[in-house]
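Review this chain:
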Amino acid sequence: MAAVHARPSPAVGLRQRWQRWWEERLPRSDTLVLTQRNVYILPTRPGAMFALTLLVLLVASINYQLNLGYLLTFLLAGAAVVGMHITHNTLRGLTLSLRAPPPSFAGQAAALEVVLQHDRATWRHGIGLRVRDDTLGRPPAWVWTDVPPAGQTSIHLSFTLPRRGWCDVPTLSAETRFPLGIFRVWSVWRPAARVMAYPRPEEPCPPLPPAQAQPGGAVKGQVREGLETEGVRAYRRGDAPKRVVWKKVAKTDQLVSRDGSASAQLELWLDWHDAGGLDPERRLSRLCAWVLAADRAQVRYGLRLPGVELSPDAGEAHRRACLQHLALWT
């Protein structure tokens, strides 16, 4: 039986529409300075109960002419006013900075690092940040921290990338209820940064397509199913550690290196047409898995997409270029 999704109530739907309209009016920036203009304060539920208690105490003191009742009422009210200013000052003056988020894969969590700093010689306690995402079944959890005097601290957040390509960083919210918990002070922040989402790699990864021989050269090696390059030779002084076949070293206790002359005779092409009769998104997912597998095997590989061709190469820069073309292909 298909799952039945409960429709939100009209009040919840209206609140979400109003929240989205309000957030869209906020300017995007990767740095936010919290001031009087963008920090808001309201009583919490315990704060409302505290105010009701003060009202009852005041009425009872007036009715029974209790001087100690007046003293207790105004003492608690004064503590609430002082706590309100402390709570507001905990956020006011902070600077929030978002560091450039690294690329990730669609459907996985993208990591965000937010730096909180200020230049005042006081501690800032009980500051929380979270991602404002009303598409989830429950709101994301808060991440809490303290900021040292005239210093800075970092908070790490995450959100799920919904699709491949460029994805906007969602709206963030900062909040504190320090020290009494009867007032809630918060601010809303729309970062300008975007996250590159690579296609989600296919799992399990299918075998790599066979390598192709270069024209005009005899083939001395081939890419095996285990993603190792055949053709090894004795270790020579000066060989790079990445060319050492460590699996064979563990078995035979003899240093051997991959034969560069053999592997140079082959070209591994990751072609759109070799991905099988799949729909475009699943083909991109398979090609993404192949790129990661070829990079782990440290072999030279090229990428062919409709309208795109990257020559065979190896290394981190080549891997990023291939994944980015897969992410942005249309």
